[in-house]
Amino acid sequence: MGQEQRETGSAAALGQSSVAGDLVDTRRFQRAGSLLREALFELDAAGRLVLATPAWERLVGAPVHAWLGRVLVELFHPEDRDQARVLLRTALSRTDVPSRLELRLSGGTQPRWVELSVTGDPEHLGGVLGTLVDVTPRRLAEEAAATRERYLGAMVEVQRQLLAPEGSGDFYNAVLEPLGRVAGASRAYVFEFHRDASGRMLQSQRAEWCAPGISRELDNPDTQAWPIDQAFTLHQLEQLHRGEAVQGSPEDFGADNAPVLLAQGIRSLLVLPLVVHGESFGFIGFDNCDDARPWSHVEVKLLSGAAGALSLALEQHTTDALRVRTETALRRTEAGFHLLIEGFPDPVVVHTTDGMLLSVNPAMANYLGYQDPAQLLGRHLLGLVRREDQEVARRHLEEAQDGALAARSHEVPLVRRDGQVVSADLVTLGVLFDGVPARVTVARDFTERKHMQAQLMLGDRLASMGMLAAGIAHELNNPLSYVLSNLEFLHRALGPMPRPLGAEELLEYQQVLDDAREGSERMRQIVRQLKVFSRVDDAHEESVDLHRVLDSVAQMAASEIRPRARLVKQYGVVPTVRANEGKLFQVFLNLVINAAHAIPEGFTDEHEIRLISRVDDDGRVVVEVRDTGRGIAPELLRRIFDPFFTTKAPGQGTGLGLSICDTIVRALGGTIAAESTQGHGATFRVTLHVAARPTLGA
């Protein structure tokens, strides 16, 4: 066989081997991906799908083969595609830290959210590896919690307007704006029913609120003296007479009315009946001119409560007691306020400023295991809280001053009638009740949200560990190298055969063993720090030595600090604090890493990160993390603790770090604040409570 034939045969064999290797890698990729709930995928240099695991079809709703060769960006909602392109470009230049972003999938009537994580493929130049994770349940839960809180604030504002002593009786304009805004409506309006000379029932518009850019229809002739049997179908009229809400698209309403509604740009509308003295008085309506989104069951229920309060105000206004102000009438009967909270799906209580329960809705009674809400009346709110958590609950109640907006939510364990402890998230607002300042507190079940927080905290820990992995390896490698070196020296020096050792040899070998033991101790400390940081026992609290935590953080973050700044420890004499060591480690590691990232590399002599500990005038322990970095702009400073807000470049931060720090510190009963002047560094201040001193036994 000639030389050329041998070379050709070798090349063919090599090509076959390469193809076989690619097939093996593909099968291993698919087999490994089948074990995960996330969809793993690989893209080529043009961003087209090359491989995907079986979870892809379950998440995307289309088989993998239908997507092979298609550009991944097409998977996402058109408004999110530019973000996806930026993320993929960022990933091409990074193979060390994954880039992450939450995006909406394209198609479907309801938005579906996924977390896209991508990184450059070190094995294939220009390629990208990534995962897709369905985060829709978490997003929906967060949106539902936020919606309920917004509606509660609007309901309290409506009640305040209806009870205002200085009110002119113009109830409509007083309540339409807060209700229209919270409902996300384009218009909010009130129609009243009246009869013509022949006795036919008509409807006429009396008041209106419009969002910016939406045309006003109050003076439109089509909104005045319109027969109600033309405006609504027979079935819809029956619903209104029964006191039920009606909603749908313009085509769902009366055939003669539909063109009028479409001409006003309406895509969906909600109508809630107003009933005065048992008779249909009219309705309050909401238009949506942006899309055909229906109002949810919870939204309809809450808005119906507001419509009921308005009906009651109108009823009182039209009785013989017209001279009595609406506020007095509503306070005397308490019906208006009860109408707002009785139908609220979350547990609600009304209490005096010092905590005595005045009103309890059925949801709260059921949540705490009571048959009748009256069983809770007259009790103190703090009596429903565990003794060790009463101080946290008291501080929360003090945040809601008379007439103030909602206090920041706090997690407070409540005790059920059977002794079981449930974790609740409390939100408190100041109101007037029976003419005196009072407060309304909503308790939302915290179980699901607490689980999500734990997952976010764990994800933040894993992200920090990934960022510091190289530095930790270096910190372990240094002592490990000289431990092994010393042991190797002893092994060679002692030799295979035992022999008597002189005094000088014994002294030298003792020093070698001491050095090896010191290196082993350093490695043991690093492993202990990793164990503390990775611990997920979020419920365990104990007396924690802050300086030990700060020292561990400094050692763990040394690789991030060393190229940028000097680390200065300015410790005062401070007592131990009541906390979870792993959580505090996470808080201060986040703050120190953020401080390091605010300083450019290569100017170590010009910058410093300073850790300061002291006791303030109130006896609380304060820790400050100061840096001499670029600082934070004033317009950004007030948002830094908001979830998912970040000033870092795409792919370099999720915006969860400081939000998680705030959640952890507040759960411990402490506070966290930031001060900064742009160009002159920043200071983050954490305040914690001292651990209770143990009592002496008898």
TrEMBL record:
Pfam families reported for this sequence: GAF (PF01590), HATPase_c (PF02518), HisKA (PF00512), PAS (PF00989), PAS_4 (PF08448)
InterPro entries: GAF (IPR003018), GAF-like_dom_sf (IPR029016), HATPase_C_sf (IPR036890), HATPase_dom (IPR003594), His_kinase_dom (IPR005467), HisK_dim/P_dom (IPR003661), HisK_dim/P_sf (IPR036097), PAS (IPR000014)
SMART domains listed in its UniProt record: GAF (SM00065), HATPase_c (SM00387), HisKA (SM00388), PAS (SM00091)
Top class in the EC scheme: transferase
PAS domain boundaries: 25-95, 333-404
Recorded GO MF terms: ATP binding; phosphorelay sensor kinase activity
Domain Phytochrome chromophore attachment site: 167-303
GO BP term, example: regulation of DNA-templated transcription
EC number(s) from the headed UniProt entry: 2.7.13.3
Domain named Histidine kinase: residues: 471-692
Catalytic reaction(s) noted: ATP + protein L-histidine = ADP + protein N-phospho-L-histidine
Record keywords: ATP-binding, Kinase, Nucleotide-binding, Phosphoprotein, Transferase, Two-component regulatory system
PROSITE patterns the record matches: HIS_KIN, PAS, PHYTOCHROME_2
Similarity comment: family membership: In the N-terminal section; belongs to the phytochrome family.
Protein name as catalogued: histidine kinase
Organism placement in taxonomy: Bacteria, Pseudomonadati, Myxococcota, Myxococcia, Myxococcales
